[in-house]
Design goal:
Blueprint: H1 2-18, H2 22-33, H3 38-45, H4 51-90, E1 106-107, H5 109-123, E2 127-128, E3 134-136, H6 137-140, H7 151-154, E4 160-161, E5 170-172, H8 178-186, E6 191-200, E7 211-221, H9 226-241, E8 248-255, E9 258-269, E10 276-277, E11 282-292, H10 294-299, E12 308-315, H11 316-324, H12 337-343, E13 345-346
Parallel strand pairs: 2-6
Antiparallel strand pairs: 1-13, 3-5, 4-5, 6-7, 7-12, 8-9, 9-10, 9-11, 11-12
The protein binds 3,4-dihydroxyphenylalanine (DAH).
3,4-dihydroxyphenylalanine (DAH) binds next to strand 11 and strand 12.
Length: 359
């Protein structure tokens, strides 16, 4: 019996070691330890032996059973590891591959400029807010301190829409300022947001399109003053145009929703009929701003004796044209692929204050 056990051990061990996959290993297991397996079969013969023989043979058989079980477990782990390795190899993704050889498609200068605005103001702690293109009279005018019949309403060349279900007149927002109202009514100060988006006016000529883009800024807290407004816009303009000594001039102006109000000019040159941004002694208007009018703060449900802050607004096409030397506003919306290839931007280069705004 002992000799035949040695023989059996060698055969079973060879079958386990030779199993090339999990199915073959299972076959080897059943052949050794299954109901009709060879070790199981020998176990069944123990009953016919004398007590002495049974003790020795039983111990030897149990040892063989444990040994073969352990060998099967070890082989199973080996095969599983090999199967996993094979899968990992087969499903491998080479992340060192460059993006598609020639990335096709370009980012529109408006998208690029909005990304740059977000990078600059994001770095100063602003977040982005949005509002609907279709507005009502309250958000677009009334809450912003445009009294009914005020001439500033007429200056906006508003597109009016059929009344909404609740009977209120609808319109296409003429500026991004209504989102100031939505933001103040929707969140608690301190507020620090920029609001890029589409705006609409019934106007179409060389320098006006019925749809254009603005970016609005709004800061509301208990202590922000005009000095902060100036510092913020100086820093923005210098970062956006990439000119460290770009001069800014704040000229008194009027907007219903700010008091005091100012228009901001940046330095430029018009020598030889060519417009250049920089410290050259001439001035070019680029944005409107001011301290948020107490009436607006009150209309939005906040206490103007406690809260104050500033706002600003500018045209995105305008600053994009100045920065990127795009001469004609109307080309922004002609969807001419040749124009986009020329003035567009690589889609995968996200502007940032650390890596640069545009390349
Ligand atoms: N909403 C103004 C416009 O469309 C621009 C503007 C001016 C926005 C001054 C402001 C501001 O927030 O403070 O002409």
């Amino acid at each position: 019996m002992m000799e035949s056990l040695e023989q059996l051990r060698a055969e079973l061990a060879a079958a386990v070691a030779g199993a090339g996959d999990l199915a073959a290993l299972e076959e080897a297991r059943v052949a050794a330890l299954g109901k009709k397996g060879r070790i199981t079969g020998l176990m069944k013969t123990l009953g016919g032996l004398s007590p002495e023989e049974r003790r020795d043979a039983g111990a030897a058989l149990n040892a063989l059973k444990d040994e073969i079980s352990a060998a099967i477990d070890a082989r199973r782990r080996e095969l599983e590891r090999a199967a996993l390795d094979a899968r990992l190899e087969a499903e491998r993704v080479d992340i060192t591959l460059p993006a598609r050889p020639e990335p096709r498609g370009h980012l529109h200068p408006i998208s690029q400029t909005i990304d740059e605005l977000i990078a600059i103001f994001g770095d100063m702690g602003f977040s982005v807010a949005e509002g609907p293109d279709i507005e009502d009279d309250f958000h677009n005018f009334t809450a912003l301190n445009f009294p009914p019949g005020h001439p500033a309403r007429e200056m906006h060349d508003t597109f009016y829409l059929p009344e909404g279900e609740d009977g209120t007149p609808r319109l296409l927002r003429t500026h991004t300022s209504p989102v100031q109202v939505r933001t103040m009514m929707g969140q608690k100060p301190p507020i620090r947001v920029i609001i890029p988006g589409r705006t609409y006016r019934s106007d179409h000529d060389m320098t006006h399109t019925p749809m254009f883009h603005q970016v609005e800024g709004l800061v509301i807290d208990e202590s922000t003053h005009m000095g902060h407004l100036k510092g913020c816009l100086i820093e923005f303009c210098r970062a956006f145009f990439g000119i460290d000594d770009l001069p800014l001039r704040f000229r008194p102006s009027f907007f219903p929703f700010t008091e005091p109000s100012a228009e901001v000019d940046i330095g430029c040159s018009r020598k030889g009929g060519e417009l250049k941004i920089g410290n050259y002694g001439d001035w070019l208007e680029i944005l409107g701003c001011g301290m948020v009018h107490p009436n607006v703060i009150r209309n939005c449900g906040l206490d103007p004796d406690r809260y104050q802050g500033f706002a600003f607004g500018m045209g995105i096409e305008r600053i994009a044209m100045l920065k990127y030397g795009i001469p004609d506003l109307r080309t922004f919306f002609e969807a001419d692929l040749r124009w986009l290839r020329h003035y567009g931007f690589a889609a995968l280069d996200m502007p940032s204050m650390t890596h640069g705004l545009s390349r």
